[in-house]
Amino acid sequence: MSEGSAGFGQPSRTAGRVGKTHDGGERDLRAEAAKRDADDELRAKREEFVLDDTVYLDGNSLGALPANVQARVADVITRQWGQLRIRSWDESGWWTAPERIGDRIAPLVGAAPGQIVVGDSTSVNIFKALVAAVRMVRDSDEGRDEIVVDVTTFPTDGYIAQSAARMTGCRLVAVAPGEVPGVLGPRTAVVLLNHADYRTGRLHDLPGLTAAVHDAGALVVWDLCHTAGALPVGLDEHGVDLAVGCTYKYLNGGPGSPAYIYVRADLQARFDSPLPGWNSHAEPFGMRPEFEAADGALRGRVGTPDILSMLALDAALDAWDGVSIEAVRAKSLALTDFFVECVRAYVPAGRVEVLTPAAHGERGSQVALRCPDAGDVMRRLIEQGVVGDFRAPDVLRFGFTPLYVGFADAERAAAVLARTLGGSAG
Fold it and tell me: What is the DSSP letter of 44?
C-alpha cells in the first residue's frame, strides 16, 4: 500500500481482470480473490448477514443487517412487549440489558466484565466522559484547566469538547494526535482522541498516547467508533481511563443503535457523571430527591434504556460468537492490502491518491482515496452496485467489514472504480 498521499505512478494496462505487478509481471487478480475467499476462515460468517449482489463497503458508516435480528426484534415486539408488557422489565431482562450487553461488547475492545454500559448516543457519552474526567482530575489538582482535543476529530467530538470546556471553565487545546505529547503539562486535565481518523482510516497510537497522557498526570478518553469490531483495542491492557463508541458500524447494531461508555474499574467509584438520572441512582425505585450514585459502571446510565434498538443490538452481537478479534484484524489488513493492490493494477495513473497509511500498525479497516471529483465518482459507483461513501471535499471511503466482505468484493470494487475513472479493467 502506498504511504499517505502517495499517488499511483504506473498507467493501467489490464487485460480483462489481469493486473500488472510492480516488476511488470501479470497477476490474475480475480482468480486470486477467489482463492483467498476459499481459504478464508471467516467466510461462513457472510451467510449470517442479509446481503445481495451489491458490493457493500460502507460498514464503517452502517453495518449490514445480521439475519437473526428480524426474528429477535419481532419476538421483543410481539411477545415481550405485546404479551408480557411491563413484566418484561424483569422477566425478559430489560432492566439489566445495558450492562449485560456491555459485557458482550467488552471482549471486542479488550475489557473485563463490569466496565461497559450500553445506552445513549456517542455524543452524550463523550459529554459524560469528558466532564466526569475533569471533575475526577480536579478533585486532586484544581489547577488542571485544559482539555486537549484531536483537531482532526469527527465534528461532534469537537462540539462536545467545546461545550464541556465552557461548562467546566477549561481552555480547549486542539492539536493533531501526533502533537499531543508536546502540549501536555501541569494544566492538562483530560485528552479526547479518536482511535482512527474517520476520513483517512489512519490508526492512532492508543498505547503510546495513553501512556504519555498518564505521565502528564491527566486522564484520556478514546473514541472507538471506527475501531471497535474491526481490530483489537486493548482497553484494559493499555490502562485506558474512559472510552466511548457507537455500535452501528462494525458491530452491526442497526441505524441509531445505542452507544456505550467504558469506565475503568478503579475509576468507577470516582466517576461523577454530569448527567445523573434515576437509572444511575443507587436506589432507582426509591424515588428519593437526593441523588446517590450506583456502584460500578451503572454510574454511566442516565434514563430509561431504549429497549427496542438495544435488543436489536443484542441479537446482532450473536454474529461474534466464536469469532476471534485477532482473526478479524488479520483479514481486515489482508483485504485492505488487496484492494489497494487491485486499485494500483486497474486505475489509470494520477486519478486517485491513497490517504490511508501503508503500515499495518497505522491503519484501521478502511481505505480512503483522494479523488478530485469524489462526490460524482461515488454516485456513479453506487449506480453500478459498489457502495462506499464520500467525505467532502475529495475523499472516497471504502470500509471493509471482515465478517461479511470478501476478496472478490474488493477486486470487483476496484474494477468498477477503474471503469468509472476510464480504466480498462473488465
Answer: G
Helix pair angle (29-39, 325-346), 10° resolution: 170
Burial class (CB in 10 A: 0-12, 13-18, 19+), 196: buried
Q: How many CB atoms lie within 10 A of CB 356?
A: 28
- CA Rg value for the chain: 23
**pTM for this prediction:** 0.94
Pairing of strands 389-391, 395-399: antiparallel
Closest Cα to residue 335, out of 58, 37, 30?
Answer: 37
- Annotated catalytic residues are 154, 223, 248-249, 397
Q: Give the burial string for 137-164 (b: 16+ CB within 10 Å, else e).
A: bbeeeeebbbbbbbebbbeebbebbeeb
The model's pLDDT over 57-109, given as tens digits with 9 standing for 90+, comes to 999 999 999 999 999 999 999 999 999 999 999 999 999 999 999 999 999 99
Instruction: Express each pLDDT in 351-390 by its tens digit.
Output: 999 999 999 999 999 999 999 999 999 999 999 999 999 9
